[in-house]
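Entry 12.
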Amino acid sequence: MHHLRDPSRPACQAPLTAALLVKHACQVRNRVSELRTASAMSQGELAKLLGVSRQTINSIENGRYLPSLPLALAIARNFEQAVEAIFISDEEEGS
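Predicted 3D structure (tokens):
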């Protein structure tokens, strides 16, 4: 039997089953916009460097999309930062 998510609740607040006790990715903020503007880059310029669309960069910056691991690594390399310094979980930030 499949358990369906309650459509009245946002996806990242859907209950987890007992077998799937992982922290949901929705609890991550990022510093992409901060680093990009400090580098005097437009979203389009960063997107071109990374091989993605400007819309992808916009979605990452606004927290609507979490990049794949290869893209997160490419972003980190571009800004010469550790991935953990750019993508920060709310849990880490509070400690």
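Annotation: Residues 26-94 form a domain with the 434 Repressor (Amino-terminal Domain) fold (CATH 1.10.260.40). Confidence is low (pLDDT under 50) at residues 13-23.
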